[in-house]
């Protein structure tokens, strides 16, 4: 029996499903609201994994006072005042690169497993 020549890019349907699920997981990670400090007086709340690529910058206070051995937070009038909204292109590029890498690695692992399974000797009945 002669086999038909393979195209230069061809994957199994199961690999496509696994890659779709991996891409959906990465979109889910990127759509969760996260917070990170952006300096001593500001905090970013936005979207992105592992870095926030779109978000709002808020002023926060760092007023603490020590009473004995206890540190007490002192709220300020500037707490949670919106300063700016921004899109970080560097963080967006990094997040897209990591998401693409995760999807490609999942696809490569699945495809390698399926091709090895296909090459194994089968019992003839």
What is this structure, in a nutshell?
This protein is an alpha+beta fold and 125 residues long. The chain has 2 helices and 6 strands, in the order αββββββα. The chain has helices at 13-30, 89-119, and strands at 33-37, 42-47, 54-59, 64-67, 70-73, 81-87.
List the topology elements.
Blueprint: H1 13-30, E1 33-37, E2 42-47, E3 54-59, E4 64-67, E5 70-73, E6 81-87, H2 89-119
Antiparallel strand pairs: 1-2, 2-3, 3-6, 4-5
Helix pairs in contact: 1-2
| Annotation, overall tally of beta strands | 6
Secondary-structure element series: HEEEEEEH
Q: Whole-Å distance between the termini?
A: 19 Å
Radius of gyration, in Å, reads: 25 Å
Structural class: alpha+beta
Whole-number count of domains: 1
Beta-strand residue percentage: 25-35%
Helix content: 25-40%
Bulk shape: rod-shaped
Mean pLDDT: 79
Strands ordered across the widest β-sheet: 1-2-3-6
Count of helices? Answer: 2
Low-confidence region ranges? 70-75
Largest sheet: 4 strands, antiparallel
Please, could you describe this protein's structure?
With 125 residues, the protein is an alpha+beta fold. It has one domain (13-114). Helix content is 39%, strand content 26%. The protein has two helices and six strands; from the N terminus they run H-E-E-E-E-E-E-H. A hairpin with a 2-residue loop joins strand 4 (64-67) and strand 5. Helix 1 runs antiparallel to helix 2 (89-119). The longest helix is centred in the C-terminal third of the chain and has 31 residues, at 89-119.
């Amino acid at each position: 029996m002669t086999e038909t020549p393979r195209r230069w890019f061809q994957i199994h349907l199961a690999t496509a499903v696994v890659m779709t699920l991996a891409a959906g997981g990465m979109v889910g990670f990127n759509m969760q609201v996260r917070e990170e400090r952006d300096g001593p007086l500001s905090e970013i709340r936005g979207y992105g994994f592992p870095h926030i690529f779109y978000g709002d910058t808020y002023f926060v206070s760092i007023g603490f006072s020590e009473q004995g051995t206890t540190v007490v937070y002192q709220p300020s009038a500037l707490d949670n005042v919106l300063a700016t909204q921004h899109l970080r292109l560097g963080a967006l590029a990094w997040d897209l690169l990591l998401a693409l890498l995760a999807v490609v690695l999942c696809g490569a692992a699945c495809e390698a497993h399926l091709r090895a399974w296909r090459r194994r000797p089968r019992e003839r009945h």
